[in-house]
């Protein structure tokens, strides 16, 4: 856990971790703070913030509690962001490890697939995928992961290409270790740190992509999301700007927290090349 201590010593890492901890706590305590369905009509429509103690952040055009939507939206954003990042990281690590360790035609074939996915902007790929397959949370997670796995794959390959020439890898070959065992036990653990630092950036991108899809009406309509809350406030932006400003501010703070955490994690892991990659 020495990396965690180094992370907490960096101002960026400590601030980012504090923001993410508060957001995670808010999401976990959402059923306690605002029990029930956050999409149900709870009071009079368009109550301004702090006008009614029962609705500290007011209500939207349908009379739904903005605070409840904000809390449950935090759960959605963090869950989708973490799930999409995890899926992208697993796929990217597998492809990058296979390409870098195998080399030759396998490397060339896998890298051409990576190039094909990198050509298409991640958001456009997610938009096309969700529009074609359908709207649900697993589909949104998969769509975001498909648009973001190429960067971890390329970074993993670069790390593997450098590590596979090290003396301890050559020694493992000499003593007869199986190639799969060498890849998983000797190479992968040493290739992980810069890729893990990149994962925080992927989480931030996934949260923004999910919010954008929800804003366009392509998110799961049965759950509260910050993107759908921002879209809900578009038509009354002049008279009730808080409907869009509050979830928009929460989204900005979340992305800021993830960015700060990423910066601190990069320093804690001793990686200087992640941001350049």
Automatic annotation (TrEMBL):
Specify whether Cell membrane is a keyword of the entry.
yes
The residues that cross the membrane are: 12-33, 78-102, 123-146, 195-219, 240-261
Q: Which UniProt keywords apply?
A: Cell membrane, Membrane, Peptide transport, Plasmid, Protein transport, Transmembrane, Transmembrane helix, Transport
The cellular location(s) given in this protein's UniProt record come to: Cell membrane
Q: Does the keyword tRNA-binding apply?
A: no
On the tree of life, the source organism's domain of life is Bacteria
The UniProt entry lists membrane topology as: Multi-pass membrane protein
Q: Which Pfam families match?
A: BPD_transp_1
Domain ABC transmembrane type-1 span(s) in chain numbering: 74-262
For this protein, the record's PANTHER family field holds: D,D-DIPEPTIDE TRANSPORT SYSTEM PERMEASE PROTEIN DDPC-RELATED (PTHR43386:SF1), OLIGOPEPTIDE TRANSPORT SYSTEM PERMEASE PROTEIN APPC (PTHR43386)
Q: Which family does it belong to?
A: Belongs to the binding-protein-dependent transport system permease family.
Name of the protein described by the UniProt record: ABC transporter permease
Upper classification of the organism: Bacteria, Pseudomonadati, Pseudomonadota, Alphaproteobacteria, Hyphomicrobiales
